[in-house]
From TrEMBL:
Lineage, top ranks: Bacteria, Bacillati, Actinomycetota, Actinomycetes, Jiangellales
Keywords, ordered alphabetically: Membrane, Transmembrane, Transmembrane helix
Domain of life: Bacteria
Chain positions covered by the region annotation Disordered: 66-87
Residue ranges crossing the lipid bilayer per the database entry: 14-36, 42-62
UniProt name for this protein: AtpZ/AtpI family protein
Length: 87
């Protein structure tokens, strides 16, 4: 069973999930930073929250949709990248 069974089918759906994650991360952490600004008077909470949100949403996207494992030799020793139909 693939570790990527939770992925949505179709390219358009993946694009909407990526866009939603890219918007939700900075919005959530920016809101948290804004709250920290108001509670403590620290004026850097909002910018720090936005940056943390962008970084975390980028990491989540990379982990969820990032590069698949490169194909390697199979259990029988055959390398799928070197296999040719005319051999």
């Amino acid at each position: 069973m693939s570790s990527r069974t939770h992925l949505p089918q179709g390219g358009e759906s993946v694009v909407w999930h990526v866009m939603g994650t890219l918007l939700a991360g900075p919005a959530l952490y920016g809101l948290i930073g804004f709250g920290v600004d108001k509670l403590t008077g620290w004026s850097a909470g909002l910018p720090v929250g936005l940056v943390v949100g962008f970084v975390l949403s980028g990491y989540i996207i990379y982990k969820r949709y990032g590069r698949d494992d490169a194909p390697g030799p199979e259990a029988n020793g055959d390398d799928p990248e070197r296999a040719h139909a005319d051999d």
